[in-house]
């Protein structure tokens, strides 16, 4: 089991890869529940394609120990691992933001 870190600089590259892969894999699994939304997940990059042609890209940035997020709604963002969660500068969690934005676009 991985321990909780206060901030992403406190863990090694190996720990970052485990944590980021867990998050990306979890996002991929949750998105697969949406009808007509396609995903591809490979080498630390999660692509999400919506039926209306819009797409999201979430990828890990190992040197920075961050997840980078590109959205047709909110644009580019960076997420850090803080207190056991991947959050942006507004303290919004990546999972909640992605699922909310997908819901907005497929309604």
TrEMBL record:
Q: SUPFAM superfamilies annotated for this entry? A: Frataxin/Nqo15-like
The lineage's top-level taxon is: Eukaryota
Instruction: Tell me which PROSITE patterns the record gives.
Output: FRATAXIN_1, FRATAXIN_2
> Gene3D superfamilies annotated for this entry?
Frataxin/CyaY
Q: Which GO terms describe its cellular component?
A: mitochondrion
What InterPro entries is this protein classified in? Frataxin/CyaY (IPR002908), Frataxin/CyaY_sf (IPR036524), Frataxin_CS (IPR020895)
> What UniProt keywords are attached to this protein's entry?
Ion transport, Iron, Iron transport, Transport
Question: Its GO biological process terms?
Answer: iron ion transport; iron-sulfur cluster assembly
Pfam families (alphabetical): Frataxin_Cyay
**A GO molecular-function descriptor:** ferric iron binding
Family stated for the protein in its record:
Belongs to the frataxin family.
What name does UniProt use for this protein? Ferroxidase
Q: Give the organism, scientific name.
A: Paramecium tetraurelia
């Amino acid at each position: 089991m991985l321990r909780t870190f206060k901030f992403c600089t406190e863990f090694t590259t190996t720990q970052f890869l485990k944590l980021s892969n867990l998050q990306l894999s979890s996002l991929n699994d949750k998105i697969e529940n949406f009808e007509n939304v396609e995903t591809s997940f490979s080498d630390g990059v999660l692509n999400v394609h919506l039926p209306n042609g819009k797409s999201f890209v979430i990828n890990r940035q190992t040197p920075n120990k961050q997840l980078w997020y590109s959205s047709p709604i909110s644009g580019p963002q960076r997420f850090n691992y803080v207190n056991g969660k991947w959050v942006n500068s507004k303290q919004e969690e990546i999972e909640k933001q992605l699922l909310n934005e997908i819901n907005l676009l497929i309604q």
